[in-house]
Amino acid sequence: MIINISEAKTNLSKLIDMVYHGEKVTIAKNNLPIADLVIHKSLGKRKLGLLKGKVSIPEDFNKEDDSINDLFYGSEK
Question: What separation in angstroms does the CA of 69 have from each of 16, 29, 63?
Answer without folding.
Answer: 53, 66, 11
